[in-house]
Amino acid sequence: MTWEPIRQGHFEFRPPNFTTRNISPFNPSLQPKVEEPEPEPLRVIEWDHMNLKVFYPMALTSTWTVRTCLYPLAVLRARLQLQKQTSVYRNTWHAFKSIAKYEGARGLYKGFWVTVPQIGTSFIYATVYEKLRAYLLNDLGFTSVAGISSIAGGAASFCSQVIFVPTDVIAQHMMIYNYADKFVGGSDKRILEFLRNNQASGTLGIRTVKAVYHCDGLAGFYRGFWASSLVYVPSCFVFWPVYYYVQDLLKKIQNEKGFLLLDQAIAATIGGAASTVATNPMEVFRIRLQVHRSDYKETFDRIVRNEGWTVFTKGLPPRLISNSIYSCVVMVGYEVVKRFCVLPEYKEAVVW
């Protein structure tokens, strides 16, 4: 409202002019602006945050690429763990030089194509892991991220053994085929003898499948299933707590100003190393059980008698290198894939 002076000091009342655009009480530009709250940072991307049609192909591709690059280390680890003490190779470097010199790249990738079905384990692992995480978090009210991941990871690892064990059994026999006499002996050589007597019946992979079935039946493909589970399930119980503990530690050191993806890479490397060291004796037990074809008690007695305390370090260097690199690259790749696969409404909240 305005008051305007007139003659002799009087004032005239004039009503407000609501037709004037600049002072209209209904003009949105004059209304106080309400700032929308910024979305909370999304540090852990859950199952319901992602576009699964994009997630699965990208996750499987990244995981399998890393497996392919690191496969030679699996061959080194297998041969070092199967030999009695240092009867064939003095150390990891000696094993690598010998295989590369006398067998070439084919020796370092012996049994690789048999492990191709293991790409299915990535699908199984990712599905069980993410779904169980979501169930524990949302339905059961678990609050510990490390605890949730340990339980979900252990369950996912156990389920993936359905594919892992048969392909590992076949691939491991193929890995030592050229020098099998140096790695197995006595009654353990039954599969080897079958392979040598049937050299004209197909590729080494097909002949190995036939040999395992001929000697042990279908059960032979799942030899050491429980031993394998006792490697990979406890491995998750070590890896995930260490992974999140290191992340939290780095976060405190950097006052929450660090680069999350780099923190995850460091945490995954340390977690992979810790879980590898913790499970190495069971890994030696598993591979000898599967390749030497002895029972659980006999395998244990042989390891104690022939290896003693060295079982804790047998084949550890290549396995440590492989698992540390694998954990780092796969976790970073997995986290990057998850970030690219988040639904549009969560993209602004993603923390890199």
UniProtKB/TrEMBL annotation:
Pfam families per the record?
Mito_carr (PF00153)
Solcar repeats: which residues? 50-135, 144-249, 259-340
User: What's the chief localization of this chain?
Assistant: membrane
Q: Which InterPro entries match?
A: MCP_dom_sf (IPR023395), MCP_transmembrane (IPR018108), SLC25A44 (IPR042164)
Could you name the Gene Ontology cellular component terms for this entry?
A: membrane; mitochondrion
Keyword annotations: Membrane, Transmembrane, Transmembrane helix, Transport
The membrane topology noted for this protein in its Swiss-Prot or TrEMBL record is: Multi-pass membrane protein
Transmembrane parts of this sequence: 225-246
Q: Which GO terms describe its biological process?
A: branched-chain amino acid catabolic process
What subcellular locations does the record give? Membrane
Question: Which GO MF terms does the UniProt record name?
Answer: branched-chain amino acid transmembrane transporter activity
**What family is it from?**
Belongs to the mitochondrial carrier (TC 2.A.29) family.
Q: What is the name of the protein in this document?
A: Mitochondrial carrier protein
Please name the source species.
Bursaphelenchus okinawaensis
Please name the taxonomic classification of the source.
Answer: Eukaryota, Metazoa, Ecdysozoa, Nematoda, Chromadorea
